[in-house]
Write a structure and sequence with these properties.
The chain has 24 helices and no strands. It is mainly α and about 450 residues long. The radius of gyration is 21 Å and the shape is globular.
């Protein structure tokens, strides 16, 4: 990883919108994203109480617009407020309102730098990664000392699988402006490159230096800190971070979901159902809906499980027009609609070469019996040496299908040693496969 792995935890800076929107919501689409058509700028988010700080931000921005309707500043402020609100509430439609607002700012002043940067951030939110990369590259040529722009470059390159370019952009950002968002980014970059200790260290720092007046970003950092502990099988510490996040920002849907995962990993299925249901009641998230279905499957409640799986498919097919990779994984894990799953995975893989897309593509190929093609795709997924139990598991099963028992055993053991409960159902399959090899 070059310098990024050795510098003093610093890395990249940006106002924080790009990273927090991208990593919090990009791969976990919600039922509320149904309304993606542009909305009137004046309407307020339905999920916020009238006294909430974010709602007040929206009201203040609207006052600026009312006072100076032909000046872009008010529209830029409204864009920021909508993005913040979308992250807090999980109401993806608010990002469309943000896009409408920033579009108006650019109509008034096409070269307005703040508006241009916000627009590139929203391109990432809507998974227009190549478009974001092109726009940010253009801005970087004009404003080479702007840290925000390097954040967009980093995020877009990560999602497209251009990891060297992402690291180069990240290194430039650390030289410009390290802050809370910088530490959060280094955590993600380090995690991708197989450095969980460094990822945890960076996210701990991010949470510590978060603005005490803005609770949600701090809670977000704590949730992702918990996720890093969860990835390496430290479930007690993961749950501790989720609890802290809930103390900082009560009823935070990401933290409730984290609690549910931690309870699953510790075989407390009754509590897991409680927390996952509460999270989904606040923000119906496909990942959590599927996990709830898996808990019901594990506990023999097939009818309840099928209802959750059907809900997940409904959300993704009806509203998941941005990214359906999780739907492909659901179908493949359950050995159903394998042709459709492969079609989704292949389409995604053609446009983005990140390791997680390659992993899902490999798994779909494996389930279709295309073992050599699966081997090629999983090799691509493993190229950063990411310590991801699911990737190890998929790789082990592919090697087993090819008769490479020694390598299959090594990879399946790596999956279960890294995170024994990486998936409530698939981890059982990994154990069974390992027993067959023995």
């Amino acid at each position: 990883m070059g310098k990024i792995k050795s510098f003093t935890i610093y890395i990249i800076s940006i106002v924080g919108l790009t990273l927090l929107v991208l990593l919090s919501g990009a791969c976990n689409q919600n039922l509320s994203m149904a309304s993606v058509e542009p909305q009137s700028i004046e309407s307020k988010p339905k999920n916020l109480a009238a006294t909430s700080p974010t709602n007040r931000q929206i009201e203040e921005a609207q006052k600026l617009i009312d006072k100076n309707p032909n000046v872009p500043n008010g529209y830029n402020s409204l864009t920021v407020a909508y993005i913040h609100s979308a992250r807090e509430t999980g109401d993806f439609s608010l990002n469309s309102k943000a896009e409408t607002a920033v579009g108006r700012a650019l109509e008034l002043e096409p070269e307005n730098l703040t508006a241009q940067k916000l627009k590139t951030s929203l391109m990432l939110t809507f998974h227009r990664f190549a478009e974001a990369l092109e726009a940010a590259t253009h801005l970087q040529a004009k404003y080479p000392q702007d840290a925000f722009i390097y954040g967009v470059l980093t995020d877009a390159n990560v999602e497209l699988g251009n990891y060297k370019e992402a690291i180069d952009a990240a290194q430039k950002m650390v030289d410009l402006r390290p802050n809370m968002e910088s530490y959060a980014r280094v955590s993600y970059v380090r995690s991708l490159h197989g450095d969980p200790k460094g990822a945890i260290e960076a996210m701990q720092t991010a949470a510590k230096i978060a603005d005490p007046m803005d609770k949600e970003p701090q809670a977000w950092c704590l949730v992702h800190l918990g996720d890093e502990f969860f990835k390496i099988g430290n479930y007690a510490e993961a749950e501790k971070q989720y609890d802290t996040a809930l103390n900082v920002f009560p009823n935070y849907h990401f933290a409730l979901a984290g609690k549910g995962r931690a309870r699953v990993a510790q075989n407390d299925f009754e509590s897991a159902v409680k927390f996952l249901t509460e999270s989904n009641n606040r923000v119906p998230n496909v990942e959590n809906v599927i996990l709830l279905g898996d808990v019901y499957t594990k506990t023999g409640k097939s009818d309840e499980a099928n209802k959750q799986y059907e809900l997940a498919q409904f959300i993704e097919q009806k509203f998941g027009n941005i990214d359906q990779r999780r739907l492909a994984l659901l179908w493949t894990d359950r050995d159903t609609k394998l042709d459709e799953a492969l079609e989704i995975a292949k389409r995604e893989h053609e446009t983005r070469k990140d390791i997680f897309t390659a992993d899902i593509y490999a798994w779909c190929l494996y389930k279709k019996g295309q073992f050599q093609e699966a081997k090629s795709a999983i090799t691509e997924a493993m190229r950063l040496k990411t310590k991801d139990a699911r990737i190890f598991y998929h790789a082990g099963m592919i090697e087993k299908s090819l008769g490479n028992t020694k390598e299959a055993k090594r990879l399946l053991q790596a999956a279960l040693q890294t995170n024994p409960f990486f998936d409530i159902l698939q981890s059982d399959n990994a154990k069974s496969a390992l027993q067959e090899i023995k």
